[in-house]
Specification:
The protein is mostly helical. The protein has one domain. Strands 1-2 form a two-stranded antiparallel sheet. The longest helix has 33 residues. It is globular, with a radius of gyration of 21 Å.
Length: 383
């Protein structure tokens, strides 16, 4: 026990193939016909969240737990797309909520921001206590205070309490800025403002954050979510022509729909293997910075996935379950497998991955059970 990189002793390719086959089997065996009629309902956003967290978890198995790029390839290659999917869903969800029921800045912080912090604080407290008791690890008072405030300037897989928490810092920036700049009549303008701010902060790194190389790769996905919510918004007693066109295409165009899904799948497959700036010299010449090219590649893949999930007429319960617990899985998965792993010591690597995938959901369910009464109490006192 303790945070160490595991060296695989079994056949990497064989282990990877078993995990891929098991993953595909679970996804397809849990597929059922979709029952929704909306373009972008909760069932679709849940599946996209599930896809997003799985890309992140697979990447952390590959590059942090095992540190062998061949392990779980190619499942592990698009973690950046998973991060963008989460930011997209956040921008979309917050905008839909604000367009239906506008809130003042303080009310937004009480209703929305606190909901992010409650499970985060509970998970963080458990991590600090567990690391102190079982690993004799003390992070220091100031580190714990900064962590409780959501400030994680580094993303060190072995020194930080939970290196994926770099995302909390970046996400909180959007949550803090969103109500300050939200314009109900022009959400697209809000999206532009937030994207510009994020690009400037990511490009200049004013706080000299060690994790900024991750932040700057994810500057525009939140704003894309805002634009999507604006484009798909349906006003009372009015039809949205774009929404009606998408519905008509999805429901009444079989061959063209399959062709679009196929093209999007090919884009995902190709671009996911060509995300580096050196793969796109012309784009690099236009954008100038390598990270902007890599960000664009992630956005292209992300939007291709969105199109696929919007047009498909089936849904996977497995992806939906992982989506429903995606935030909890994000909060706990790396400390568990990074510092408290026993499965990789006693099981073949493929079996260890599969067992961990089950454990992540079970622990996330437990965390959600702990969070629910606290959230209900906070709701009562903040009304």
């Amino acid at each position: 026990m303790g945070q160490v990189t595991y060296e695989i002793t079994d056949d990497v390719q064989f282990a990877t193939q078993i995990v891929i086959v098991a993953f595909l089997l679970v996804v397809f065996l849990t597929i059922k016909k979709s029952s929704h009629t909306d373009v972008f309902p909760i069932s679709v956003t849940n599946e996209l969240k599930g896809l997003g967290i799985l890309t992140v978890v697979f990447a952390h198995f590959t590059y942090m737990k095992v540190n062998n790029w061949e392990f779980l390839y190619p499942l592990s290659t698009i973690a950046g797309v998973g991060v963008d999917l989460f930011l997209l869903m956040s921008g979309f969800g917050l905008t839909v909520g604000m367009m239906k029921r506008p809130m003042g800045t303080l009310e937004f912080y009480k209703k929305r921001v606190i909901k992010i912090f409650i499970p985060f604080w509970i998970a963080l407290i458990i991590m600090f206590i567990a690391d102190f008791i079982f690993l004799d690890k003390n992070y220091g008072f100031m580190y714990m205070i900064k962590s409780a405030l959501g400030f994680f300037p580094t993303a060190d897989g072995f020194a930080d309490v939970n290196s994926p928490f770099w995302y909390i810092t970046w996400m909180m920036m959007f949550y803090i800025l969103f109500p300050l700049f939200f314009i109900k009549k022009a959400p697209w303008l809000t999206a532009i403002i937030l994207a510009v701010i994020a690009l400037i902060i990511g490009g200049t790194n004013p706080l000299d954050l060690g994790s900024n190389w991750l932040h700057r790769l994810h500057s525009v996905a939140f704003s894309i979510g805002i634009v999507m919510a604006w484009l798909l918004a349906i006003k009372p007693n009015e039809k949205n022509k774009l929404v009606e066109s998408i519905k008509n295409f999805r429901d009444n165009s079989n061959l063209p729909r399959y062709l679009v899904i196929l093209v999007m799948a090919l884009i995902v497959a190709y671009v996911s293997q060509h995300t580096s700036a050196k793969d796109w010299p012309t784009v690099k010449a236009i954008l100038g910075e390598n990270y902007l090219v890599e960000q664009l590649a992630c956005v292209v893949i992300m939007m291709a996935f969105v199109v696929i999930f919007v047009l498909k007429k089936v849904e996977s319960k497995f992806l939906a379950i992982y989506g429903a617990f995606s935030y909890e899985v994000y909060l706990i998965h790396w400390p568990l497998m990074g510092r408290y792993d026993v499965f990789f010591d006693y099981l073949p690597s493929w079996a260890a991955v599969i067992v961990w995938m089950v454990v992540f959901i079970l622990v996330s369910m437990l965390l959600q059970k702990l969070v629910t009464p606290v959230s209900n109490f906070v709701d009562k006192i903040t009304k």
